[in-house]
Amino acid sequence: MTEVEARVARWVRPQVQALEAYQVAEPGKAIKLDAMESPWAWPGALEEAWLERMRSVSVNRYPDPAARRLKPLLREGLGVPEGAELLLGNGSDELIQLIDLAVAGSGRTVMAPGPSFAMYRIIAEYTGAEYVEVPLDAEFGLDLAATREAVSAYNPAVTYLAHPNNPTGNGLDLDAVAELVAQSDGLVVVDEAYAPYADSSFLPRVLEFPNCLVLRTLSKVGLAGLRVGVLIGHPAWIDQLEKCRLPYNLGSLAQASAAFAVEHQEALDRCVAHVLGERARLVEELPAVPGVEQVWPTQTNFLTFRVPQGSADAVHRGLLDRGVLIKRLHGSHPRLEDCLRVTVGRPEENNRFLEALAETLAVAA
């Protein structure tokens, strides 16, 4: 061990040293269907108007720390209940980190069903909290009895409930969510990153409970590069979390672009409609590919599916060799053995994915 390595080992907290960094695949020239991004480039026909707006941004000045122009637009666009407050972050990840820093930490517990969003565990552990995972049921739905039992046993400071869930794609029973919020003494965060593609939302009910926040993002509707996350809830919670937010966390160009996008909501809605149309086609055609053993229902912009036992790595590699990058879930969680996840792409991308998958599975067989 070198002197530098020894010093790192001595001073970096053990919780951090025990973690593995989150890995993001490099797509190269492959069709990129691994990260739940919108495949339709924004702003499209609005590009000149958007660029004109960007020319008015004074990048020599710090951004508005209160995002005073953007927040009212988001309030209206997202249908935020009257009386709720907003906190904006550099993506949902930063907001999860703020929550754990403010509410969890050493000696406290963060809980979530599993399998679910990997950052719930990663952020909990590097902020010093104990992380508890409660298994989802056989169809990846919320196991209400087991989760209620875990709430009683661990009294979590923060519970994350992803609706719809990533990486499985299914929505949760919102009546069951309400029961868990009502039972919990700690904070419950309903993570609705995929709300534009879902059939229901907990946002209208966020103020019914004294311990609930709803998390949203603009990343899944075509604005992933802006990194704009939105946390919504009682002002008392938001006021405390604001103390942990760095003052200039959302850049001026991101704020101006997000405001422009929300002002032209119809363009975002068209992208969502295109995704929903292609999703319906994949839901029908993916199960018909020989070798695909199971496709789970989805309320997101991706589909999770299972291939024959022991073949997930080879299928993932075979798709990449054929120019298509999707997400390998196999190895990330025991419940996801032999599973892969594909983001809904443009029609020609989905066609190529289906063709490449059929070719790869035929070779694997």
Query: What class would the helix/strand composition place it in?
Result: alpha/beta
**For this structure, what is the CATH class of the largest domain?**
Alpha Beta
Task: Give the domain tally.
Answer: 2
| Number of DSSP helical runs | 13
Helix residue percentage: 25-40%
Taking pLDDT < 50 over at least 5 consecutive residues as the criterion, the unreliable ranges are: none
- Give the CATH H-level superfamily of the largest domain: Type I PLP-dependent aspartate aminotransferase-like (Major domain)
Main attributes of the structure:
Aspartate Aminotransferase, domain 1; Histidinol-phosphate aminotransferase; Aspartate Aminotransferase, domain 2; amino-acid biosynthesis; four-stranded antiparallel sheet; PyrdxlP-dep_Trfase; histidine biosynthesis; 365 residues; pyridoxal phosphate binding; 13 strands; alpha/beta
